[in-house]
Every structure is written in C-alpha cells, then in structure tokens.
Amino acid sequence: MRADFTKREVKPMSLVKPVSLVKLPGRYLAHQEGLPRLPVPPLQQTLERYLLALQPIVSQEEWNHTKKVVDEFWSPGGVGERLQKGLERRAKKTDNWLSDWWLQTAYLEYRLPVVVHSSPGVVLPKQDFVDRQGQLRFAAKLIEGVVDFKTMVDNETLPVEYLNGKPLCMNQYYRILSSCRIPGPKHDSVVNYAQTKKPPTHITVVHNFQFFELDVYNSDGTPLTSDQIFTQLEKIWNTSLQTNKEPIGILTSNHRNSWAKAYNHLIKDKTNKESVRTIQKSIFTVCLDAPMPRVSDELYKSRVAAQMLHGGGSRWNTGNRWFDKTLQFIIAEDGSCGLVYEHAPAEGPPIVALLDYVVEYTKKAELVRSPMIPLPMPKKLRFNISPEIKNDIEKAKQNLNIMVHDVDIKVFVFTQFGKNFPKLKKLSPDAFIQVALQLAYYRMYGFTCATYESASLRMFHLGRTDTIRSASVDSLSFVQAMEDPAKQNWEKVELLRKAVQAHRTYTDMAIGGHAIDRHLLGLKLQAIEDLVSMPEMFMDTSFAVAMHFKLSTSQVPSQTDLVMCFGPVVPDGYGVCYNPMDDHINFSVSAFNSCADTNVARLAHYLEQALLDMQSLIQCTPKSKL
Ligand code: COA
Ligand code: HC5
Asked: How far apart are CA 17 and CA 353, in angstroms?
C-alpha cells in the first residue's frame, strides 16, 4: 500500500463517485459507505487456525492440553457458539464490530506511557541546514506543506488509497489533524476539533519547553505563506531564548494514571486549563528542538530515532513535547527532523502519506508573494506551576529518564538489495523479510517466538489492523533446515519458498478480515460482557504464550527515504519496523536494556546475515528436481 498524493497516481475520490472538485460534504461519506463491513470469521476456522499457530511456539504437551480446552470451547451449544452469536449481533448493530473495542483496549485503556510503549517515531532525511535561520526556514515550509495537505482533507479531495487493487477506508485521514488524547483515571479519550462548528486555525509551536499558539491562516481565511510563518517563528524564537525551568510537557510522558492525576491538578487553574485546551485544539504541534549531542555518522540515525521516540531525556528535548498531541513535527537546529505521533487515532500509513507529501512540498520554491500586513505576535501559553504540579513534573522527569536509559534502538540500512531481489525471484518482499526475521531470531535463540506483524483492515469500513502471525509451521521447518547440515540446498530453497508463500497466504487472509487475533479478542471481550467467568481457553498458558509477542513488527512503506520506529510490546521483546525501498531496506530494532536476553545490535546483525544467506541460497541453488 502506498499513497502518492504528489504524483496523483492513485484514483482521486472523484473517480470513485463522480463529483466535482469543489467541497462537497457527501464525497467522503459516499466513498466510506461503499466499503464492505468487517466480517466476523467462522468460529471453527479461527479455532483451527489458532491451534495451528500454536504449533511452532508451544510444547507438544501444552498443545495437547490446549486442544482439549479449545474442543470444549467450540462444542455444540457451548460457550464459543454463544459468544460467536453475540459477536454476530454486534456486527449487525455497528458500522464495525471491532474498531471501537480496539480503540479502547489497544490504546485508551492501555496505561503504560505513550512514550516508547505506544507512540511511533519517524526519522526524515537529514536536512542540510546547521543554524537557526535554516531551521526556521525549513519549519516554515513544512508547516505550509501540512496546511496545504489539510486543504485536501478539508475539501475531501484526498485521493483514495488502494491495497491489492481494493479501495481503502479513508477515515483515519480525518482523525489526525486537530486532535489530541486526553488522560483519564481509568481510560483516556481522544478529542477531534476538525469537525466542530469553529475548527481551529492555529498550531502549537514549542521552543525551549515554552508553548505558543500560532495562527496559520490570515484573517481572510487564506493560509499564511512560508515567509509569513518564518517571521512568526522568529518572533517565537526571540521571546523564548531561555529554557523554561519547568518542562511542563514532560507530564505527558508519564504513566497514564499518574498523568491523569497530574492533569486534574494542572487544569484546576484557569490559565493552565486555557493553555492546555489551546494545545489540544491546535491543528498539530511543531517542536523546535535544541541540537542533540553529536555522534558518528554510523550512529546518527539511531540517535535521531531515539530523539523522535522520547526526546532524549529531561535534559534534552523531552520537555519540548506534548505527547498526547496526535502529530508532532520535530525540527532540530542541527538539521535532524522527524515526527512522533500518538497512535490512538490512526495507523502509520496515513501519517507517512502526509509526510511524503510534506517532504516533497518543502522542496518546492516559494511562489506566492506574502501579504504585507503585519501579523500579531503569536500568543505564549502560560502555565502557573503550583508546588503540587512541580512535584508531578519532578516525578515524571525521573520516570522518563529511567525509561530513556532503558531503551536501546538501532537503525540500519540494509543495502545489498531491496524489494527488487525477492520480486525478481517471484517472492513477496514482505514475506521474504518476515521469514528472514524468523531465521535471525531462531539462530540467536534456538527457538521461535510468537511474532506479530501489522496487517491493514482498511479494506473494511473503519478498519484498523489485525495480526499476521509470522511464526508458522512452515517458517519453523525452513529455519530448522537452514541450521541442519544434513539438508541439501535445494531442500532448503523449497522450504524457503513454502515459508514465504505461507506468510503471503496468511497476509491475504488477514487483510481480508479472516485472521484470528482480533476475532479471539472479540470473543474474549464478548465473554467479559456476557459471562460470569472467563472461558478456560483465554486463561490457558498457550494463550498467554501466543499473546506474548517477543517480536513485534510492522512494515510501513514510503516514497521518501524514511525510517520508522517503535518500542517493544513486552519487556523481553523487540520492536522491528522496516521500510522496504526498491534497492535497500530501512530497519529499526528496539529493545530494553533492562532485559538481559535481548540485544538490538545482535538481532540486527543476525537479520542482515539471514537476508544475505537467503539471497545466496536462492541465487546459488538450481531449480529443484520436483
Ligand atoms: N512475485 C513478484 N512480486 C511480488 C510477489 C511475487 N510473488 N508478491 C508480491 N509482489 C510485489 C507486489 O505486487 C508489490 O508490488 P509493488 O511494490 O509494485 O506494489 C510488492 O511486491 C510488495 O508486496 P508484498 O511485499 O507482498 O507486500 P504488500 O505490499 O502487499 O504488504 C502488508 C504486505 C502486510 C505490509 C500489507 O498488506 C499491509 O497490511 N500493510 C499495512 C501495514 C500497516 O498498517 N502497518 C502499520 C501499522 S501502524
Ligand atoms: C510510523 C510507523 C508506525 C508503525 C506503527 C505500528 O506498526 O503500530 C502497530 C499498530 C497495529 O495495530 O498493529 C503496533 N505495533 C507497533 C505494536 C506493531
């Protein structure tokens, strides 16, 4: 899936439903309503596939026990049937039986800090400025580009994206601007001001931990030009030369329960409440960061990835964020740039499509002459810091700094080949990379683990994601064969092709709404709603093993040479994000230093080796005798 809004390769919405290019309120809805509804897969199919998915990751003994538990669950008239019926009823009543449950369980009820645990980062290509002037010029152009993209959202002229030839749900594009997460004691919420009567016309700019409201439209409703924005950014810069003593934004990096408590303290004060509301309402945030410590070229991208994920700690740029804000563009004085985004409203691909558009936009020369009317000074957002808040900030700082030390992230570019090689060999590039990851992990640990790959459910109305389980019976046979000196190369190649094909088949099943993970989640949540006790299937050891994703992975392609990254989802696991370009692959691998069993440099090394070994295996092995 890729969107190229700059080249307009994809069909604009107007081709889906013939409408003119002026704003028409029905255009978006017409597209959305034409999308299929997410199905509830048949119960038996999911349970059989669940048992199959367990085979490579649990012992035979555990599997035998689980088989009995599963049989009991699906026995005629049993609990499984009852829950399945409940799900089917829910599917009839709602636009999407899953999306609200998913938003709640995966994001809003999840209590760990959004920083590293949930919010992904993106590294943009390094820009060639090295000073404040360059930083502000680039920031101004980027802001102009995002506002230009917003015009397409506002006019509903965004081109529809396609996956496997099918049109995708575009809802997420309408959720990422003018939105923000708000902490709550048991669960958070997300607000979106885009569809309100008076949608916001300002963005938030943060510099030296100080927040500013910057209007990006002239009084006649036209967007500010980048020259105008530049002048405004200079004003902001010149009134925030000293770092704020209290990095208020750091509160947003804390555990959600702690932040929710601090939030209540914070907004008791009227000025604070107004400032917070202004940030929440803003179209997006721009963080003008101080330069980070210099590192070697080899480490540069890893260092920037960390800066995007967490800001580098309280002494560096973490206080220069409001992590609840959906979109935060980060531009540092030394030319490092990127983005961090709050994940609840949207998946990576719409965010990356916006970035692709904006990066192209920043390369364009300035064409529009700026009006000569002087603009008002951007408003500084004031905060009154009570001793209670000061204490909350101190605690948030401590927790954040511990986390920053705990996160290890390595970005590397695999340069020997990209999508081109597997394609040439008639193999799915994504499946090839996933199988290489299985090989890398197996070589490092001697066993295979539950592996998650994100699959898009956007072929369905309001679809989010399901899980491709990359550890399969076939991937295990292949990786075992690779480590078996008795196996012939032609046998290994055949097992490789089979494993790659199995992965691609699972992918098609997942994007078609027939994977197992969200269905199992639905059955479990239905049980919480309907039953007095949890069915044994969800209390079983195998279920816990299956849900403990030591490899949490995602492919996010882009037009621009971007690196995407996120943290692991379990304390003893890895987060692996990759962007396969034609002739190289950008990877990021993350893990926690506090876990003695994980090591990002080693996994990265094994992964490179696995990709190379699979390539030479295919290149050096004549076609099988079969
Ligand atoms: N022979 C030759 N070419 C092949 C091939 C084969 N056997 N199989 C696939 N290809 C080609 C495809 O046609 C495609 O071509 P393109 O580059 O011209 O478009 C390319 O190889 C890539 O296909 P593949 O590697 O199989 O993967 P995909 O692009 O279909 O992506 C997923 C697979 C799972 C990543 C995708 O379905 C998806 O769900 N993406 C969204 C993931 C997501 O949301 N991530 C972020 C979560 S926040
Ligand atoms: C800018 C790249 C963002 C990728 C984020 C991503 O892949 O998020 C996954 C979302 C999902 O529902 O599968 C979750 N994951 C990071 C845990 C894989």
From this structure: 22
CA 348 / ligand 2 centre spacing (Å)? 7
| CA-closest residue to ligand 2 atom 12 | 465
How far apart are the CA of 475 and the centre of ligand 1, in A? 18
**Are 208 and 66 in the same domain?**
no
Among residues 406, 435, 450, the one where a domain terminates is 406
User: Does residue 484 sit in the same domain as residue 551?
Assistant: yes
What residue's CA is closest to ligand 1, atom 32? Answer: 455
In this structure, the number of other CB atoms found within 10 A of the CB of residue 444 comes to 17
Q: Are residues 136 and 48 in the same domain?
A: no
Strands (E), 85-201: 121-123, 162-163, 166-167, 179-182, 189-192
Per DSSP, the residues of 57-115 read: TS-HHHHHHHHHHHHHHHSTTSHHHHHHHHHHHHHHHSS-TTHHHHIIIIIIT--S-HH
| Residues of the domain holding 490 | 31-97+415-625
Question: Looking at 85-99, 529-543, 555-569, 589-603, which range is the least confident one?
Answer: 529-543
Chain segment 478-528, per-residue pLDDT in tens: 999 999 999 999 999 999 999 999 999 999 999 999 999 999 999 999 999
Q: Which of 328, 161, 171, 147 is nearest to 253 (CA)?
A: 328
Residue 212 included in any domain: yes
- Residue 14 placed within a domain: no
Note whether 318 and 427 are same-domain residues: no
C-alpha 555 – ligand 1 centre gap (Å): 9
Look up the pTM and report it. Answer: 0.95
Which residues are identified as catalytic? 343
Closest ligand to the CA of 352: 2
- Regarding the beta carbon of 423 and ligand 1, being less than 6 Å apart is answered yes
Q: Which of 253, 511, 483, 229 is nearest to 370 (CA)?
A: 229
